[in-house]
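Pilot study result, target chain (700 residues):
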Amino acid sequence: MLRRCPHISAFLLLAGMSQPGFPQSDYWPAELAVTDTTGTSSADSDSMPGSSSDSIPKTGQATPVESDSTALWLSSEVSLYQTFKTGNSLGFERRLPWGSFTQSVVYGYQQLDVKSSIQYLDFSGNVTRQEFPMRGMGAGIEWAPIVSYSRCSTGVVESNVDIGPFITHTLFTVPYAVRGGLYGYAWNSSIESLSSTPLDSYHGDPGVYGSCSIGNPSRKIMSLPLFLTIEAQGRAIRGNNIGRFRGSVLYADEFPFFGGGDSLFLHLGDSITNGKELFIGSVGGKSFFSPTSWRINHTLSASAGFKMKERLGMLPRWYYQWYLHSISYPSNVSSLDDIRTAGQLFGLGLQTKEDRKLWYSGGIEFKWEFEDWLFRRRVADDATLTDENVDALMANLNDHRSVIARSDHKVRLHLPLRLTAEYDMGATKDSKRYTFSYMDSSAVRKMNQNENDNVQIDQKVSLRFDGRDSLYFITLYGRYGKLYDYFYRALRSADSRQTREYRIGLEAGCSAGQFEVREHLYGDAEVADYYFKKIEGVPNKAPPYDRVVSSTLNGKWKIREDRMNLIGAWTEIYNDNGYWYGRAYWPDSSDITEEYYAIDRKAIQYWIDLSLETIFESCSLTVGIWFQDVFQREFDAKNRDYIVSRLDQGYGIEPYLRFVWRPRLCLFKFTVRRNFLTRDAERLNWKKNWELTSVLEMLF
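Predicted structure:
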């Protein structure tokens, strides 16, 4: 498959090809959402616990399964394009009235280049006995051996295995499970091939593991409005021990005051990882396993939320969270990575029901956070720089307080004549203030120079018209985004700038008889503007400008209803980027006789994909051809002209064939492509440039 020009791909990302990823404030926190047995959560429902359509599940039962059944499944995926890659899995499950047996085999292989490859094998399974050793309990044995082989100049084999018993039980509607057993690592120092390596070149260490879990996030405890989850794991091998704990409890129930129908949520969560882990490394061509430093990763949080029933057509909600997160290395007193973050946030939200003619959803959130470096070793503020404390002082310069405010609002209005108007607005402000300073040898105060305000605003307005019976539609939209970075300290003040993003677009589609057409057309512009325009040191002095115009046309002709389709797609993109040479950006404006936008790079590229799909009773066959052209030019300052680039590939042409077969309990897909590059001297070498992909899935 041909790849896009990397400059073009990066530019399309910067120029707003996708919607901005600003954090959203009109949401319900995940830790306050209750997942029911069907996988939905109370955060996605308008109903409240205790109401007639209670969204918090009652104490659930496991989904019944057949007491006597056998299942065999097989999947295989193979692909070849310059390198070979495959992934295969085989599984067997046998269920009987007394229990079950499950075994799977997963094998993968990837050829990185001529001399490098990776292989792995996973042979996990378990056997379970129900109602053993007593009624209501289950017991069994599970195993999980995994082996991988990586080859570059020499080979490296590494493997690990878990094997041991487990017990499951439900006590007073609270499920719990206990696991434990043997654990081991095995590896080699260096091998030329698997078959010729003596056994004494392999090394290994045995260990033990254990874990237990209590509770279920979708089950109440003894019909109480409490949802408990506790998990603890431990592992020890060759003196390297690590333990993990994660626990949370959620209270979610109807609030009895204000007439009922409101919901109160309280959550407490704690997680900690403490110990060392092993990793593979190499010295002098020899492989070995080495422990990490002793690390403690701890997170503690407490949350509260309140959802109100519908009042005056609105559904209000609020939430609060306090959290504390730290990472420390107790055995390394000289570590500069001990970091503790403490914060709290408060949010308000308001929403109407989806079926309203005027729909609204919005929220506002405030967050206060303090990041403290070297929190276990206090370094006095205004300390004097010495050779002994220079590293600690430089680390403490990262101490800062953040105040983050977010607000998001969405409005949808259904108008007459099948018109729908929408308006989205999101804004966020992140203010960082660095709190630590020290005195250098000249008694000059030093502080972190990155203190700044970051403000992002994004707005979008659209108008959509839907035709009768949804046979056609048209949407017009516009978007305006603004990013403002302001640095307060003198050394970085020249980096202060704002960037504005504009987009206007049109989406349209229609379906008439045997024909379907859809078009998406838009134009983007990204404009930067430095706040201090005439300061030496402003990056590039001239601010960057970027522009994109894109059109994507998709069409489908149903030649024979449900039997034969002609499908086409045409995408064409023009983009350029450069700099704005304006008088305002030069200390001596006489240097600029005329203001202009200097294009540094510009390109036109397009893709055409045309295929014919034929559908049979249980299979389909698609034959198509894909064409790409990239015409890119870069400005040559020496010749004062644009030089054509990307001539190494020329035009790209890919004929392809895709076959899909869907018999009962089976799926098979096969795709073959042949890549031609017009400037490739090997384009007619039929042994090269093939892409083959096959997927097989079977269930018995």
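One observation from the pilot: The chain is about 0% helix and 60% strand. A full batch analysis is planned for the follow-on phase.
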